[in-house]
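Exam prep: given the inputs below (a chain plus S-adenosylmethionine), describe the expected output before reading on.
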Amino acid sequence: MISSERRPSVCGQPPVSVGTTQDRNLVSTISCHYRIVASHLGGETNLWCILREIYARSMAELPHSFVDSAGYERLMGRWSRAVGSVFLDWVAPPSGARWLEIGCGTGIFTELVLDTCSPAAVFAVDPAQAQIDHASRQPVAQRANFRVADAQALPFPDASFDVVASALVINFIPDRPKALSEMRRVARACGIVAGYVWDFAAELSPSGPFRRGMRQFGADVPELPGTRDSSLAALNSLFEQAGFEGIAAKSIEVKLPYFDFDDFWQAQTTSYSPTTKIIAAMTKSECVGLVEAVRAGLPVRPDGRIEYSARANAIKARVPG
Ligand SMILES: C[S@@+](CC[C@H](N)C(=O)[O-])C[C@H]1O[C@@H](n2cnc3c(N)ncnc32)[C@H](O)[C@@H]1O
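Solution:
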């Protein structure tokens, strides 16, 4: 349900809660029809404002469902590649290893492993059928074994892998201790378990400037899943509790440019993100205000490009021997 913490809403109406997905679908349908009627009547009414608020709040409760792989590539592709290669240098895995990648998404990190780590074999799993379908259509699929599976119940025997890695995934897993115990189970004794997540707690993900702009505008921006476990201290503690040894952690900063504001905006408004659904419920004039608020907070280079840093927190550990 919606948090009891109340921040300024997009239209200043009192907060309203809705329950099930069916409720949300109904509210969404009603608000779409109401929008059409309101536009014919020539503008804003109080009821429209309330419906829009209900819709925005119900959307804010929806989790990331990773059903739009092309959108994922547009938002995260460049960032994932940049941080993944720094991470792999730091982990320094042995060549000839059998790898399992957890939460492979579209296969970005899978490809980095294949291109830079000389593995003996790479298995890659993700619970989202859309992501696995996308990865399976890429050239990387000729070199890796992709399959649908959840980190909380890995379909592999004990001690099957030398390295178990996850890129930008741990925070999205609902039962993180269970997933870490599964990663430990399928890794061999003295094998490596490693991963990294964006520093959502410090709002330093690639969406940080976008989310800050939305907040500045007064929108109710939902917290990203697993934010509380995205700091170095929280990751350390998760790995300690899972019984790993030789734990090391570090932050990785990457700085990337966007060609211009449109490039940035297109990348940030993927269909699967709850923030995009909130924006979809805004009026035209609110959208204009939002664009200005987001634009005002962005670092623009003299050549017009938008450039900023994002921070990932990385962890690596050994399975007890
Ligand atoms: C931010 S994407 C990362 C994708 C890819 N590893 C990369 O670096 O680009 C997070 C991925 O974690 C997956 N995921 C979410 N919950 C999961 C779970 N319980 N077990 C395994 N993967 C999960 C999602 O489906 C999504 O593809």
